[in-house]
Design brief:
The chain is mostly helical and about 425 residues long. It contains 16 helices and four strands. Strands 1-2-4-3 form a four-stranded mixed β-sheet. It binds zinc ion (ZN).
Length: about 425
């Protein structure tokens, strides 16, 4: 233990307390507003649906609290309690090359943490989602998904970590710059690869067949000057009753994906409005700006790691006995979320700003009332709360609360 140990414990305690306090505020706020549908939504959302959303959100928030406590405990066990030392000596007893020892150490730390957190995921899927009628996954499907995730984690994680550790060991003083560039390129490559190679391992994607909707969407693309490889429907209902739509991929691999559950519940005008909002994120350059920011953050993170790697107090303070590249990288990845908790509100602020801009764009391409109708339906069918605690929401939510967003859309309708 040194001064850095105390600083680490202080930040861990502060970020955990902050998250638990916000969760409790969220629960209290939702329960206080449980008996009354907010006036903006009267007649559009029934009391029973509003109460279901309240109970569902409260149940999920309790799970989030448990998960925060568990990941805090895992972090302390791996660091100060000597978990990494035990793992490393175990891996070293197999006498493999230094690079592979590092890769094995890191992968085993991630996989062990994942398995410790697995019961929470099982409870979330088969208790909470089940209770509120959203779960469509079976035990067999769940196990298949887990094995597939594990396989992908190894296939993608091992070469990435191997590459990074090689750069750290071989590229001299400016290794962090090369490692940052390598990670950024790797991330772009994965983003490009996801829609056509990785996502289809988990779901079936079929080109949109509804001709009426398809021609509506083609017209929207022409109006927006957007080209994409295709519009796909995903069998989201295989696992869950939640509906959504998203953009994926970069460059020539861009795709628009609708969950089958969304297509079923929204009419063509509403789907068009949702899509116009998503196109707004492209047109207002949100997607490319986010990519630039995250690339810069990656470079900064590696620059910090480049400095930390040379400080003995960093390893000592986190309870790690052997100073090497793999433990530096592992420690850095483990503790970064603790320190970055405090920049969450800033990220959420920008994301909400982007949401308003995309809504404004959507209302020039489609009628705001269609987007409002679609939002109301999505909130009702996903049992999303209409009455989040404002502070919780500004900290965690990438989207403004439903009421605020709809008021903004209504004001656009008037201009
Ligand atoms: Zn959006």
């Amino acid at each position: 233990m040194n001064e850095f140990s105390y600083l680490f414990l202080f930040f861990l305690a502060a970020s955990t307390t902050l998250k638990l306090w916000l969760n409790q505020r969220q629960i209290n706020h939702i329960l206080r507003h449980r008996d009354q549908v907010p006036s903006d939504f009267e007649g559009k959302i029934e009391l029973s649906a509003h109460q279901k959303a309240a109970d569902y959100t409260v149940a999920k928030t309790h799970i989030a609290t448990l998960s925060t406590l568990l990941s805090g405990a895992i972090l302390v066990i791996l660091t100060l309690a000597g978990g990494i030392n035990i793992l490393l000596s175990l891996v070293q007893s197999y006498d493999i090359s230094e690079l592979w020892t590092g890769v094995t150490l890191m992968m085993s730390a991630f996989i062990i943490s994942h398995f410790i957190e697995l019961p929470i995921e099982i409870y979330q899927t088969f208790k909470i989602e089940q209770k509120f009628g959203f779960n469509r996954s079976t035990a067999g499907q769940f196990i298949k998904d887990q094995l597939l995730q594990l396989a992908l984690m190894l296939i993608i994680g091992c070469p990435l970590i191997y590459g990074l550790l090689w750069v750290m060991g071989e590229m001299g003083y400016y290794w962090w710059l090369y490692a940052g560039i390598f990670t950024v390129i790797f991330t772009f490559f994965m983003t490009w690869l996801v829609p056509t190679v990785i996502a289809p391992l988990f779901n079936t994607f079929t080109p949109l067949e509804d001709q009426h909707l398809k021609s509506k969407i083609q017209h929207l693309f022409e109006r927006c000057g957007f080209n994409s490889k295709g519009i796909y429907v995903m069998d989201g209902s295989r696992r869950s009753g939640h509906g959504n739509a998203y953009f994926t991929g970069i460059g020539n691999n861009k795709r628009i994906v609708f969950y089958d559950t969304l297509i079923e519940s929204l009419n063509a005008d509403e789907v068009e409005a949702v899509l116009a909002h998503e196109l707004g994120h492209f047109k207002c350059k949100h997607v490319s700006r986010q990519m630039v920011v995250s690339s810069l953050m990656t470079l900064i993170a590696f620059a910090i790691l480049g400095w930390l790697k040379q400080q003995n107090w960093f390893f000592e303070g986190l309870g790690v006995e052997q100073i090497n590249d793999a433990s530096a990288l592992l420690l850095f990845l483990l503790i970064t979320p603790i320190f970055s908790t405090f920049i969450h509100p800033m990220a959420s602020y920008y994301q909400r700003k982007f949401e308003f801009e995309a809504d404004a764009f959507a209302s020039t391409m489609s009628k705001p009332e269609y987007l409002i109708q679609a939002l109301v339906k999505l909130y009702r069918e996903n049992a999303s709360t209409l009455t989040p605690d404002p502070l919780y929401s500004s900290f965690h939510h990438s989207h403004p609360p439903a009421g605020v967003r709809i008021d903004h859309l209504k004001s656009l309708d008037k201009c």
